[in-house]
Design goal:
The structure is a homodimer.
Chain A: H1 16-23, H2 27-34, H3 42-55, H4 61-68, E1 73-78, H5 85-100, E2 103-108, H6 113-125, E3 130-133, H7 143-150, E4 155-158, E5 168-171, H8 174-187, E6 193-197, H9 203-218, E7 228-230, H10 235-245, E8 256-259, H11 262-274, E9 284-286, E10 303-305, H12 308-323, E11 332-334, E12 338-340
Parallel strand pairs in A: 1-2, 1-3, 3-4, 4-5, 5-11, 6-7, 6-8, 8-9
Antiparallel strand pairs in A: 10-12
Chain B binds a DNA duplex through helix 2 and helix 4.
Chain lengths: ~350, ~350
DNA sequence: TTGTACGCGTTATCAA
DNA sequence: TTGATAACGCGTACAA
């Protein structure tokens, strides 16, 4: 018994060597026949293929990876699985990977920096061919990423990206999105627009806030810091932030709110409703990301649709191209978004 | 250039051998020190650990897997990713796997039998330690599973299970669930209850239909075959099936509908609404699985909550126990469900 | 067209 | 406590 609690058991599986022995050829010929190389006699090839099938031969990909130094595996690091956005992203990645002969190892960091570190390390020790990463909220130190890139592991960031460290990034233009939806409100006459902001440690949070501010300034509306309240990415934070905003004297209150994402907006809606205020008549509200729920709740929410599937697929295709040397790292890829106007903004 | 389109590039990574050379010890000692074995001199161990860190050593898990014939990888085969049920299942699996030192390779079969075959084969050639499978709708031949089990790859089925082939199964008691929700309707006075059934090729479909029928019979209601319409698992099928039911002469129409799952029920609701019928006054409807949307739509839907996270976690824990020889295969594990009464059944 | 020798990076085994 | 050797199963390179 070794330290793992496992006996060293024989694999029990047929090897190329075994097939070779049975057929009186060398293992090399078997290998060639099975990987479809041209230089094998047609008849011996047929014999080998037949024997392989009869014996239930399954090539050992581990051994293959060891010699080739190529695993055909992509490591995926995401901060949460259940949020409706990521499953779609993963579906896009899986489609792209499957078509190109890669597999996905999925790791969930649950927004925890240490788990993310651990994930990246163990994925590297598994010698994944590349990494697809969306960073956890608590990440501040980028040296792990830099080390990986330096050691030759291609990385493509998606959604929550880290720029300027030599890795490609696939995301929406957060600043622009937020500016757009803010201008949508401005265009419909709202003057006192608040922002429920994301964590400033994440690019998404910073960029969206910048977009909000840019839209105000461009339209000659004075930026009022007291109208920006930190909410984070979740419902609870949105609720608490909105509670704070509603403590402002009535005449200083916002007439519209731009939330950093849909969950935060849902939380805020709850707070607004608890205060017996009407949406959108008393306070309009908009989100971002188009969570599945956005169109289903009693006051359907105006938001910005992010093409999750496309983000996943694009990120995977970009990574695979870089792994195979067909494309250079360091790209910045922006995928298009779409303003989805529903009732919560009062513009319908 | 080999047939893969890849040059054979040197790994560029530090090996245990390299550390050994620098320190004037053997590779074996390095290996022992790094895997925390007891029989290493404390001082040499420290030296080795330090050197490993300084040189940025990442153990090669591939080589390790090759000798140990153990990958610490679990292959997950699911029919669809985006359906809200599976992300939660995967989260449960990931949590369990992470704690036990395993990784998940995720494969999406998109309900396609050939893709499922392919997935299971390539996962086996990657020598995964075990498989977690929810079968695709189009699967009829179970020999792949049997072969895998015979060759010693543990399998645990979840949700859409295959019983009696020696593999463990984790699921809800579909027959019982469907009987329960049907009896709920009967208990509130509905007499003419229809069933939108799932694909009969899948155990879930068959079992739920059996539960529906059992509930009727147990309560002395005559089973009417014309009230069972095949819907499948998706919205569109539910819509079409309901359309058919609504073509029945008015007095033969059902006053309540038991759908095989929530998406089918959503489709049916759409059809009912298009016919200007009211839910639940004209026709009551219930689903199963508690899709996230069930509670959010304008007429919230009565359904049965399946503990997705728990199913995933239990399946993974069961598999890991079997992989490590701590538990025997062939178990049948039932996880509890919960009737969630909302407005669509008219019982509130 | 086919075979031989060796290497990939690690760990089990047995000897020192 | 440490080291030498072999093995895991395959693919490359070269020779036959």
């Amino acid at each position: 018994m070794n330290h793992n609690g496992n006996y060293r058991k024989p694999s029990g599986r047929i090897t190329a060597e075994a097939i070779a022995a049975k057929l009186g050829v060398s293992a090399m010929t078997v290998s060639r026949a099975l990987s479809g190389r041209p230089n094998v006699n047609k008849k011996t090839k047929e014999k080998i293929l037949l024997a392989a099938k009869r014996l239930g031969y399954t090539p050992n990909h581990i051994a293959r990876s060891l010699t080739l130094r190529k695993t055909q595996i992509i490591g995926v690091v995401i901060p949460e699985i259940a949020h409706s956005f990521f499953p779609e992203v993963i579906r896009g990645m899986e489609d792209a990977a499957y078509s190109a002969g890669y597999h996905l190892i999925l790791t969930n960091t649950a927004e925890d920096y240490n788990r993310e570190l651990d994930a990246i390390n163990t994925l590297q020790s598994r010698r994944v061919d590349g990494l697809l990463i969306s960073t956890a909220q608590t990440v501040t130190d980028h040296s792990v990423y830099k080390d990986a890139v330096r050691l030759g592991t291609p990385i493509v960031f998606f959604d929550r990206v880290v720029q300027n460290i030599g890795a490609s990034c696939v995301s929406i233009d957060d600043e622009d999105c937020c500016a757009r939806i803010t201008e949508h409100l401005i265009g419909h006459g709202y003057k006192s627009i608040a922002h429920l902001s994301g964590p400033p440690s994440i690019s998404i949070g910073r960029d969206r806030q910048r977009g909000y501010r840019r839209a105000l300034e461009k339209n000659g509306i004075k930026f009022r810091p007291e109208l920006v309240e930190r909410a984070g990415f979740h419902e609870k934070g949105g609720y608490l932030a909105m509670e704070k905003l509603l403590q402002l004297p009535a005449r200083e209150r916002p007439d519209a709110v731009v939330a950093v994402n849909d969950p935060a907006a849902f939380g805020a809606m709850k707070s607004i409703e608890e205060h017996k205020l009407r949406i959108p008549q008393d306070i309009a509200i908009v989100g971002m990301t188009d969570d599945v729920r956005a169109g289903l709740i009693s006051i359907p929410m105006t938001t910005i649709r992010q093409p999750a599937y496309e983000i996943g697929k694009t990120a995977a295709l970009t990574l695979i191209a870089e792994i195979e040397g067909k494309s250079k790292p360091g790209k910045r890829i922006i995928v298009n978004t779409e303003l989805t106007v529903r009732r919560s903004c009062g513009c319908l």
